[in-house]
Amino acid sequence: MFNKAKNAPPENKAATLIKPDTRSSSPTGSPTSSARSSLSVIGSNTQVEGDINSDEDLTVEGRVSGIITCKQHTVTLGSKGYIQGDVFAHTLHVSGEVKGNLVVLHRATIHKGAHVSGTIVAPCLVLEDGSVFHGSIDMDPDNDMLKSAFNDTSGKTAKTAALSKTTNTTSQKAATVTPDETEA
C-alpha cells in the first residue's frame, strides 16, 4: 500500500504538469489571434463589386463580382459564398459557387456541394464527390497562363518557372550541350 501511495502523488504531479502545458497552449492561441489578423473575411451579408488584391488569406462567405488576386496565400469560398470573376491564388478551397476562371499556383480543392463554371488551371486539383464542375481543366505546371499570372510574385516557384522557361528557350535556340550532358 505504501508503494501505491507513492505512485499516486507522481500521477497528480503529472496531471499538474499537463495543466500548465494546456495553459501554455493558450498563449500559443494568442499568436494564433495575431495570425488571425492576417485573414480577411468577406461576411455572408456582404457584397463586393470590384477587384480584390490581398496579401493575406481570404475567406469569402458573401458575394464577390470581380477579380480576386491572392497569389501568395489561400482563398476559401464558403458553402454559401459566390464569386463571379477570376481568382488567382496560391491555394484555393471552394465550397460555394464560382463563375469564372480559377488560376492556382499550388492546389485547388473543389469540395462537396460546390458549383464551378469556368476554367481551372492548377498543377494539383481535387474534385470531391458531390461537387459540380462545368468547364475545362489544365493541370500542366508549365501552363503559360499559370506562368504569366505568377511571374510577378517573389515566390521561388514563379521565379523557378520563369528561369526554367528562359533556360529551355535558350537551349532550344542554341542547340548546345547542356551541363547535364557534360556530366554524364
From TrEMBL:
Pfam families: Bactofilin. Residues 1-53, 159-184 are annotated as: Disordered. Residues 1-15, 23-40, 159-171 have a biased composition (Low complexity). It comes from the Bacteria. Belongs to the bactofilin family. This is Polymer-forming cytoskeletal protein. It comes from Vreelandella sulfidaeris. The lineage of its organism: Bacteria, Pseudomonadati, Pseudomonadota, Gammaproteobacteria, Oceanospirillales.
